[in-house]
Specification:
146 residues, alpha/beta, Rossmann fold, 5 helices, 54% helix
């Protein structure tokens, strides 16, 4: 089961995203209008993916995703925006290390595919980290046996 947090200051956007992404049986979605409330939740619950709007009243999406990266560095991050400009995209990529930047209005199948790819990529990263740790342990054990 994957847990996704979606943050947007527009209730209708949250409803639409939850409807589209909630069709998958292996995804649990939590939505927030307030980035501050969402961060409080992220301090006590783990999420595999954070999706955030770029322009929000309390804090922008870049700041929100930077803070989620600090709280949960293994999570994936996607940013949505109806007002995309190159500077905001570059800032999101460089500071929040987002996986993708999706423009509103989104194309439904592309959104679903992007979320699936982000979750698959996260799984691969975790598996690679586990395998690398196992190899290091085995190498250390071999060095001790020499």
């Amino acid at each position: 089961m994957y847990r996704i947090m979606i943050v947007d200051d527009e209730e209708n956007i949250l409803s639409s995203l939850k409807r589209v992404l909630g069709r998958s049986k292996n995804i649990e979605i939590e939505t927030f209008i307030s980035a501050t409330d969402a961060l409080k939740r992220a301090q006590i619950a783990n999420f595999e993916l954070f999706i955030s709007d770029y322009r929000m009243p309390e804090m922008d999406g870049i700041q929100f995703l930077v803070e989620t990266k600090e709280l949960q560095p293994e999570s994936m991050r996607i940013m949505l925006s109806g007002h995309a400009d190159l500077d905001s995209v570059l800032s999101a990529v460089n500071h929040a290390e987002i996986y993708r930047f999706i423009c509103k209005p989104w194309i439904e199948y592309e959104l679903i595919a992007t979320v699936k790819q982000a979750l698959d990529y996260r799984d691969i990263q975790l598996e690679n980290r586990i395998l690398a740790d196992q190899i290091r342990q085995q190498q250390e054990e071999l060095e001790r046996l020499k």
